[in-house]
């Protein structure tokens, strides 16, 4: 088994270190973050840093990179307070990845990637029409991470849109039915396939399988 110390990691070539550290956490969610500026100009960017923070109230976190260069997504979220998370599916994984390119502010990634902007229920941020699971969030808190200049954005869930095929009667989601993909590192995409489901774990009972 390979063993890397912190000193080893610091000594690695930048690209090698970037690839390794971005992959060590395992598979990450693939989401397109939709935003607009105060004039309504749209922006779309792929993120793999969304995380669950709580269900009551429903809160999701999103980590943004340091604002050492213009960060259009972050700037739009701060300006309007609204943003969307849109799941990426296998049939548009290439266009989704393309949104990670460094486009000028005046060019919408929706247009560049060939994805469709859709506005829903008066919300001030655009959704991706091709996505079958989309979430509308309102920024409620920012937590600067001083160690590396990143920022944890905390968003309150205001809207959830999910295709019928992806919603089970108990409220769980069948992401495989939606052809969801996940990300390893910065550039590798994988299909989601079901393995097993288990009932709520209780001490002394052992794992209780559920039908998938």
Automatic annotation (TrEMBL):
Pfam families: Flavin_Reduct. Residues 31-165 form the Flavin reductase like domain. Its cofactor is FMN. The keyword Magnesium does not apply. One of its GO terms (molecular function) is FMN binding. It comes from the Bacteria. Keywords: Flavoprotein, FMN. This is Flavin oxidoreductase. It comes from Hymenobacter edaphi. The lineage of its organism: Bacteria, Pseudomonadati, Bacteroidota, Cytophagia, Cytophagales.
């Amino acid at each position: 088994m390979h063993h890397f110390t912190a000193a080893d990691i610091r000594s690695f070539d930048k690209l090698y270190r970037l690839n390794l550290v971005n992959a060590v956490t395992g598979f990450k969610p693939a989401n397109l973050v939709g935003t607009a500026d105060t004039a309504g100009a749209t922006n779309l960017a792929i993120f793999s840093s969304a995380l669950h923070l709580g269900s009551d109230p429903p809160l999701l976190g999103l980590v943004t990179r340091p604002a050492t260069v213009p960060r259009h997504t972050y700037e739009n979220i701060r300006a309007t307070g609204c943003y969307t998370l849109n799941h990426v599916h296998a049939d548009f994984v290439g266009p989704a990845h393309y949104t990670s390119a460094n486009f000028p502010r005046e060019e919408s990634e929706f247009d560049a990637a060939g994805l469709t902007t859709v506005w829903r229920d008066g919300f001030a941020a655009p959704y991706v029409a091709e996505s079958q699971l989309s979430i509308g969030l309102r920024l409620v808190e920012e937590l600067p991470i001083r160690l590396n200049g990143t920022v944890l954005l905390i968003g309150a869930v205001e809207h959830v849109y999910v295709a019928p095929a992806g919603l089970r009667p108990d409220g769980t989601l069948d992401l495989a039915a939606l052809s969801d993909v996940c990300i390893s590192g910065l550039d590798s995409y994988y299909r989601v396939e079901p393995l097993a489901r288990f009932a709520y774990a209780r001490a002394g009972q052992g794992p209780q399988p559920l039908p998938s």
